Amino acid sequence: MSETSLQERIEKWMVGQMPIIQMHGGTSVVREANPETGEVVVELGGTCSGCGISNVTAQNIKRDIILDFEEVQNVVVKVPSTGDSGSSTVEGGRGGDLQYSNESAEHF
């Protein structure tokens, strides 16, 4: 499998398995999906920024991707702690000036 193929499969999985993210105004993007190393990086944005259950969502994504994709060994889900989640936010919540937090190693 190529990187693109794994990334596309995980992106399709995210849309099908995690529609609640989009329904609540959140966004998600697969930043990396390397079938050779088994590493996947997913970034949440939009209303996921500052959401009280974003850590639960992140843990569910990690667990489920590892269970559903045998070539995946490690999943990192990045969740913005603060930052612009308005109309200028681009896919993955990367618009605006993100501020970094020490809340968790997975938060940026």
TrEMBL record:
Ranges of residues in domain NIF system FeS cluster assembly NifU C-terminal: 19-76
Biased composition range(s): Polar residues: 99-108
Gene Ontology MF term list: iron ion binding; iron-sulfur cluster binding
Organism: Halogranum gelatinilyticum
Taxonomic placement: Archaea, Methanobacteriati, Methanobacteriota, Stenosarchaea group, Halobacteria
Disordered: annotated segments: 80-108
Signal peptide span: none
GO biological process: iron-sulfur cluster assembly
One protein family per Pfam: NifU
The protein, known as: Fe-S cluster biogenesis protein NfuA, 4Fe-4S-binding domain
